[in-house]
Amino acid sequence: xxxxxxxxxxxxxxxxxxxxxxxxxxxxxxxxxxxxxxxxxxxxxxxxxxxxxxxxxxxxxxxxxxxxxxxxxxxxxxxxxxxxxxxxxxxxxxxxxxxxxxxxxxxxxxxxxxxxxxxxxxxxxxxxxxxxxxxxxxxxxxxxxxxxxxxxxxxxxxxxxxxxxxxxxxxxxxxxxxxxxxxxxxxxxxxxxxxxxxxxxxxxxxxxxxxxxxxxxxxxxxxxxxxxxxxxxxxxxxxxxxxxxxxxxxxxxxxxxxxxxxxxxxxxxxxxxxxxxxxxxxxxxxxxxxxxxxxxxxxxxxxxxxxxxxxxxxxxxxxxxxxxxxxxxxxxxxxxxxxxxxxxxxxxxxxxxxxxxxxxxxxxxxxxxxxxxxxxxxxxxxxxxxxxxxxxxxxxxxxxxxxxxxxxxxxxxxxxxxxxxxxxxxxxxx
Length: 430
Description:
The protein is mostly helical. The chain contains 17 helices and two strands. It has helices spanning about 10-30, 50-60, 65-80, 85-115, 115-135, 140-165, 170-200, 205-210, 210-225, 250-280, 285-310, 315-335, 340-350, 355-365, 370-385, 390-400, 405-425, and strands spanning about 35-40, 235-240.
């Protein structure tokens, strides 16, 4: 594995986590109390989703990570096979985060015009086609295909949680748990199985194309699952006084906290296999550790938000998450092969700073109008900032020919994240 292979894994970072909780946060704004929501037709809110729709939701969620984590786990080999440059690999690593940064704008607009069910179905169709198209050509075809893949995933990330809340009003917990579990399992499977598929087939194109089957299955279930259900068009107007938060210090603290924790999470999830491989670990084991890191967050993300909301302030939680992430990164820097499973577990828990950031967005606002504005500000600006993290992490490795400087830079960001999080977590509102 060359040092340039390192760029590869970072694309997983973007798609991996932005998915579940960021999508749930945007969805929460659409259906939050205090919002005046117009659904067409109105009786759709009373309908309970059936088992086929629930299966469609689970399969759609299972597609929100493997398309990017699978590429991340073997992108070094892909880049070498295509004769691509390090710059190309760096661009690929930043694509998913950029797509998630703009999805919050495009998805609601499309859903308002065409309906959520149709937009999700169209996104799954686009995902299926793009996953095939990206393995048929050269490096720029793969890059263009990855852009389309991430755009399709981003649409689903935003809209499916709204479908869950609308179609399963009496089973939101069950449906959401299934949704998040399927998402995490898909990402972990993509990163762990793809290197094995690559070794077994000896062809990275077949390895990546295999995941098209999951996307096609989701589409085949989604269409009949939503066929007899009204195509809802979410036209949400949040009532309340509209004011700019761009000059609000607390709003910027939360935005920077969101940006820094996202940067670290994307770097860790994207580059972890390459750092371990650089230390002498085989690709299969490195991919499996990434899978452990992704899976460990599932139960934590389910129980953390309720616990956080019971505390008056969240500074202590920000300190805890930052400390665990710092410890994991420090172990990765000083002795990567001494206790690799421990470092992965610590970092996996530390990445729960993401749901913590989402909870703080709600707790630091007085009403739905402010929540919507703060969520849009933190996520749009935060993801755009975070998109540069994997790129710069890889550039530092290229310049220094070592992972040490990159990891030290990540440690500095974690310290800053912790300090900002402790300030943002103090009990007050914007």
